[in-house]
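request received
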Amino acid sequence: MKISIFDVAKRAGVSVVTVSRVLNDSPTVRENNRQKVRQAIKELDYRPNSAARSLARGKTGVIGLTLTTLQDSLFDGIVKCVNDALKEHGYFLALSIGPDTSDSDWGEGSNFLYQEDRVDGIIVLSPLKEENDVLELKRKKIPFVLVDNQLEDMSASVVNVDNYMGGLEATRHLLSLGHTKIAHIAGPELYRSARERKRGYIDAMAEAGHPPFLLVDSDFDIRSGFDIAKSWLAEGDRPTAVFAADDFIALGVIEAFRDAGLHVPRDLSVIGYDDQAFSSAIHPRLTTVRQPSEGMAQEAVKLLLKIVNGTQKRNASVKLEPKLIVRESTASPDGRTLEIDR
Amino acid sequence: MKISIFDVAKRAGVSVVTVSRVLNDSPTVRENNRQKVRQAIKELDYRPNSAARSLARGKTGVIGLTLTTLQDSLFDGIVKCVNDALKEHGYFLALSIGPDTSDSDWGEGSNFLYQEDRVDGIIVLSPLKEENDVLELKRKKIPFVLVDNQLEDMSASVVNVDNYMGGLEATRHLLSLGHTKIAHIAGPELYRSARERKRGYIDAMAEAGHPPFLLVDSDFDIRSGFDIAKSWLAEGDRPTAVFAADDFIALGVIEAFRDAGLHVPRDLSVIGYDDQAFSSAIHPRLTTVRQPSEGMAQEAVKLLLKIVNGTQKRNASVKLEPKLIVRESTASPDGRTLEIDR
DNA sequence: CTGAAAGCGCTTACAG
DNA sequence: CTGAAAGCGCTTACAG
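response:
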């Protein structure tokens, strides 16, 4: 037989109310009784039934997180930090991994997290079709916060990173090294992050008095970067530096140049974005822009919990700063800023 | 006010029992009533309270999955597939991400998933300190299955991949290309997978009448592979092929050779393990051994659900086969088996 | 500081 | 095929 709070109460010689109080760390329990209850719990190896607690309390104690892929250092980092932050506050993390493709059949039916009220709130990570999500969540009155959302004007609580600033800083870094022939390989227009990074590139160039040297669209992956860089090698006036919209593209570019017998950063400076796990491990170690996944996670959790507890009324919006990480893949056009051990 | 099953019942003009029946797809409901209930549910935007259901049913409908990192294509793939498989069976996935380090303070206190009985069962992925886990889970009578476990003799339900076979096949592939100077960069002894892959290498070499040409221990990461390969370059009699215990090591090796102006696979054939996401995207595309993450996930879920439902009594054990994926990083010693478009 | 009682929102036998 | 009643295991006012 499964043991319940009654068994504990009987064993400890108190009422279930008292047991409940020590379970919830209520201060109004005589120390003596508290000890007896603790003892009984241990002896019986008792664990409170979470369903009963949830039902009685009107809260589930679980927060949902929806995302499309785990194959990304940024998401991975956020999930981990959210997990930790939640644990600290006594919450559980339930994951819902949606399909990667944005045009899937999933669009219609709602996320399974929304179907039963299993969660007290939801963190929506990088939503591609956020209008739907937001609408449904609002209709169902499920507290939520959007992280890294793609639409500019969502009336919802959001936490974002300043991708425009990231693009600006990345490009400025290249400029400060003396480059002027700076290309940008942009991510898909679909992503707000891609749009803003591109804007940062354009503005940084303008700031320095240059028109964009070369601007090309791409997917966020290694092969695209490789192919684009390959095409440059055939041409005459190729860039001396490139700001890639993410680290995967950057890696592809590096491989293409190396494949042609050229050298990074001597023949091309490369800067990526996101600081993926591999970026500090490859050769040359990649200069990149890191997003503060820990901060994003903490802000998201903090915000959501406030909303859940009713402390936060109106939509709040948090914007965090990215950070330039200078490593080995960028140097001055003549390759002389190289300070690496190779 | 939160709407409950009573509101639906009233609206539909039936009893809550009938509503409950249509909620649970009971066949014993007159079609007419079923429609009325469905209608009421939709009009009220009613969602059953999962806590109440769990309490009444004695099951939570959630399965826990514990792991240490998401930064791995294999784990990522498994989590995704588990998620899907669970969804199909009407279960939720709760994640518990433990610390990466095996010697952490975490060892003592139990996993937070175990503390309240929130889950009907648990999938333990690549447990490093599995004795503890297994003992605690058994004591608490929580159904569980071990996936990719590290100890040979666990009396528990497990699903594993045949890493010995993987090592054998990887090495045989290299042998069949004509190599004899085949090195193996092994993973940490701590991992059963590492031990078995190494054993596969040794046996495959013996099978072909060769002693192991070169055997070196490593961590599962890019830098280690890089450093090890670098050290070879200084020596005289270096291998013409290497079987790396995982793709990260393999990537490091490739980079080291390329960094020295050498070419893969012309100067060195490289085969990795795991088929990480990047492995098919880098240049040269990496020959590797893929683990059947989908199969592992499905078997694990199938097994666990059987245990949960009491269908499965004794410990069961499933062993799956890995698959050799031949791509561009391996060729014959003279580099002539090259059939790639570069 | 402690406990009796009601209630959280479902499901499950049991009758009919 | 349908419903009244009991029960799942807690927590929360309310008294004392």
